[in-house]
Amino acid sequence: MKFHNVHGSGVSLLENKTVATRADNSFCNGIVFSDLPVKVNQKVCLELTTVQTWSGALRVGLTSLDPGKVSVADLPRYALPNLAKKEGYWIQPINESFVDTGSRVTLYLSSQGQLQLFVDGLHKGACLQGLPTDRTLWLCIDLYGNTKSAKLVKPDEAPKEILARGPEAVLAYEEACTSGTQPMCRTRLMLVGQDRVGKTSLKKAMMGQRYNVNEESTEADGIDLSASCSFSTNNHAQWKMAVRGEFEKESEEHIEEKKQLGIMGGAEGLEEEYYQALAENIVKELQQKGKQKQEAPKGKSGSRDGPRMPLPSSRKSDRSVSSHGDKPHYIPPEMISEVPDRVVQLVQDLLEQTPQVNQSKSIQSKLKSASSSSLSKSNQSPVVKEKNRKVVMNIWDFAGQPVFYTTHQVFLTCRAVYIFVFNLTQDLNSVQSTQQENPDGEMTTLDFMDFWMRSIYAHTSQNTSNTIDNTRLSPPIFVVGTHRNSLSTDPTQQEQMVEEKFEEIRNFCVNKPYAQHIVTPFVAVENSIENDDQVSALREHVEEIAGKEPYMGEQMPLHWLRFERELANLVKDDFNHASFDQVKEIANNLGISSDKEVKIMLEFYHDLGVLVYFGGSGTMDNLLRNTVMLNPQWLVEKFTCILVVKQVEDKWDMLKEKWRLFQERGILEDALIDHLWADVIDQKPVLLGLMEKFDLVCQRSLDLSLSQSNGGQKYLSYYVPSHLATCGDNKRLYAAYDTDIVFYINFCGFLPDDLFHRILTRTVRWTLGNSGKEPYSMFRHVARFYLDEEHDFVLQMAPRRCHRIKVVVMRVVNDDDYSSVESDDNDNYRDRTPKPDVCAKLRNFLESSLFELKEMWIKRLYYTVCVACPCGRPCYSHDSPNCQEELCMHFLNLDECLSNRVVCCEHRRVKTNLFRKWFPEPFNMGFSGQILPSIDMLETHGNIEKHNPNLPVWVKSAAKLLNGGEENQDWLALAKVMGYKEAKIEKITDDFNPGLALLADWILTSGNTALSVDMLVGYLEKIHRDDIMEVIQQAKETNQDPPQVFISYQWDCQDEVKALRDRLEKVGLSCWMDIGQMGGGDQLNSKIDEGIRNAKAVLSCVSPKYVVSHHCNRELSLADLLAKPIIPVMFEPVAWPPPGGMSLIFSQLVYIDMKGVGGHGGTGIHGDLNDKYKEITQRVINYANPDLTKYFDTETLLSSKESNAHHESSSLSSMESIDNSLNNNNLEHTTLRHPYPLPVTMVTQREYTTPQQVTVTKCGVCTIL
């Protein structure tokens, strides 16, 4: 938005019309308008510059008159009262005490017709009401009095957690702010690093506490949250401490300290924070009423029409003081009738302080006025003082033992300042003895640093400061070395050794993704010295960096702040969780009546880590959706009881076997859970549900043998990946064969064990849901799973420094078959090659799971799917031409391989035919209808090209390449591979263009369909003619119209969806359906976008997994945004409308139930499958016209057409012609065995009962063969 060209005579527009400045010699003629209308719920922010020469301040308002139709000569000198009297103008003055140089005035037009006013983020109320939001409104402001200029700037946005939730959440936040706001300055200081490096001692040193030489290691639950503090950003004084947990009874001074800490001081701090904000608002209201009463006569004098009289500073002082009068001992009862006594006390205190403050301001005003010798001096650049902020900070001390790392990831947030602590006396590249308990391998100090910094980087979304010259990213990470004095007693040598350590760390961090998060310079401290200068410098640097974080000073709605206080009180009373209805009741009592606002507020606090709530994230489990975990720390404590539990010697005999099963195989049985959670047994269902939501455990299938041995009683058990044993030899799981398909998921330098364990958990859940089969065997870094009756797959985590997962897909046959078959037996070799659709299904699951993990937990998780490059690049480290060592392998991007027939690696060009066979072709890529026009080969007279000039270009190009081919790669070699007899070959040889004659004869005699071309591609591959195959592939991609129907589905019901797609294709409705070839990432997203935009209708195949899938939610949202007709088809029972984001789209739609079990709005419940197919076709044909020249399902199409009157006549005529054609031809069907493994397109284009057989029409190949 900019300022309009129409403005007052005293206004000049600068900086591309974003700055409006009034002339120095005038206090009026400053009316300006916006060039664009103000939309409902839009914020407009003005940054003001003021002078002390005049009286009065800015006037703001709206107008329904187009400024472009207003004459400059008609604009009055003053907006008040001149413009305000005219129809279509709404103007209101802003209190002069509200604004100063650098103040930001934000105007917000609400849907209720109110113009809300915010000054420097503080809500001042609705300055205008009853505005006609149904009319077009422009902004109108008057640069009056002491307001010199106004600059349009970007409004202060809602917290980024609110912005990430979408426009609906932003709107709810803005509406909540209209009831009053309070700026919040709070953060966390998180100390991370190895065990026994001095984190706890550093914390005490920064807080001014004494050093304890016998300081114990932080264990317990893995995080020590016992310390909080506060500081002022403009006063580097000692931190004010509020140490919790050291004394059972707190003194009054201690409680007062906690009150000063806000949320960091617990319930007392939150309560005091809310009371202070409420008291400030009451005082402002009292001051406003008093000022209105005393200024009422002034409005009648007309003093606005001229400049200020002599002695302006004296007048301003008198007016400023008299506006308050004597000390207001009396407070109207109606203003404090429903507020706590503490608020009344704070109001009295503030009123007693106010006259002194305003008198001080008047004195300053006199000094400024006296020092101004002329009006021109007021044009000097104003000096804006940096705002002083009181920051409250909670200090979190993370335990350094690796067993706690899984639970630590839950608390990593961008709203924190991190300090990585290490021991300066330890070698940065050597493994320390304290890490021997780590079961995942040895790590050096630099490895630990890299792990923690990548963890912080990955789990926190990117955030930058709003200063242009600051390139550091948020959250900031300090690097602190301890035990400085232990390096050397010589100060010079000590400094040199410290610098060498720091230089090595700087070189290590170069080009790392987290490099911009690191704060320099690094700090070397000695915790044992009281008042160490380096500790003091570190403390001041932390204050400076924390005070500049972008979330500092964010406005918190007062209702939300009070709600937060109520939750803190509940936690204080040992209420660790509550139902959604209970939380909703608390919110309603505080004036938050909208269910939508309650959910958005809970989601916001969930993102902040204040509580845990999954009710709005598409969770299907009703228990989790209706549960709010008020105390996340208590939740992690209970998780820790399971994840890091250690066997004790004094245990019950009946649990010995269960302990052994848990420690050796990671299987946790129900009875052992009851033992570990004995104190919270009634909350067990909620805790288990949350552990499954966090992917920390996965429920197994019921153990029937265990049920029988316990009188038929069924016991539940769970896999806990963090307790799995290490596999000594991978050959115990599988033996590698050349037929196995192997691809990798590369995590770009960061693959922690807890991420791999989460993937294992999701994989177990997926395979159990698809087949009901347990994993064959699971170890800490490798597991083998059942995929289907013919396939298994293995997930294997590579060595730590490789940061990738190896995926092996294998076709399962008997070992006898393997040993008895020679490697050159092509048929048996193909029988052992995994099917393309199976590989695509597995890849889709893995990428979908990683995407969901990225959306929910690891915000900056980067990964690519790749394959080992077969280029044979020599390895000089191991003197091998094709080294298979993990650290020596190099890879090709799988998506690039699937998109191109040739790619380049660092060594040479690589053909991708092998990789393209692993995955199916996209279904919508291929020929349709007849390939060639009808040709009588006998009438070509040896020159087919002359008598048939309209042959497709790609056929002619392929023939030209065949004619010029080398021996064993020309048309003759192709004819022999196809099985042509000598007599037929001689006839083709006589043609002027034998290559073209061969291709035309093959296509026409094998059915003249897309299947003929697919079989041709198979033969071309056998003679290694990749160039001709590329010509055919390009022709496929350009030889079709965009699909009419986009099918959105989740892979759990792929077979049923493919059957539906085939049915639609039979009636001439082309469909877009991703079955895996396109892979993931930007390539898939662009194809999906193209498919939805070109589609006439979108079929939404609903199932429980579809509802919670992020991919499917995005597809449906895009279709709804583009106003595409959406037809929901329910494949598995789901509550209607489904919970989560889809409910808004589906609530007004009627679904088709494919399972025969109905619900709200269900249709076709009692019909058979065929009737439901017809109903879907009828719905689709309302938006798309089928191509009747390509498909022959006359029954479905005819019934569908008869139900649509506007298509009826064309339908009947077309169907009659097709029926006559079919009856007259009396086609004969012959079975033809494929000469080569089924090409990809043949697999995906139609479902065949026998994959190696197809049905063709008018077949003459049998006679040729």
From TrEMBL:
Provide the residue span(s) of the region labelled Disordered. Answer: 287-335, 355-382, 1202-1233
This protein's superkingdom? Eukaryota
SMART domains in alphabetical order: NEUZ
Coiled coil regions, renumbered to chain: none
Q: List all Low complexity biased stretches.
A: 358-381, 1210-1222
List the biased-composition ranges (Basic and acidic residues): 287-307, 315-329
**A Pfam family matched by this chain, by name?**
TIR_2
Ranges of residues in domain Roc: 180-549
Q: Which InterPro entries match?
A: B30.2/SPRY_sf, COR-A, DEATH-like_dom_sf, Death_dom, NHR_dom, P-loop_NTPase, ROC, TIR_dom
Q: What is its EC number?
A: 2.7.11.1
Domain NHR, chain residue ranges per copy: 1-155
Q: Which residues form the Death domain?
A: 970-1036
Biological process terms in GO annotation: signal transduction
Q: Molecular function terms in GO for this entry?
A: ATP binding; kinase activity; zinc ion binding
Protein name according to UniProt:
non-specific serine/threonine protein kinase
**Classification of source organism:** Eukaryota, Metazoa, Spiralia, Lophotrochozoa, Mollusca
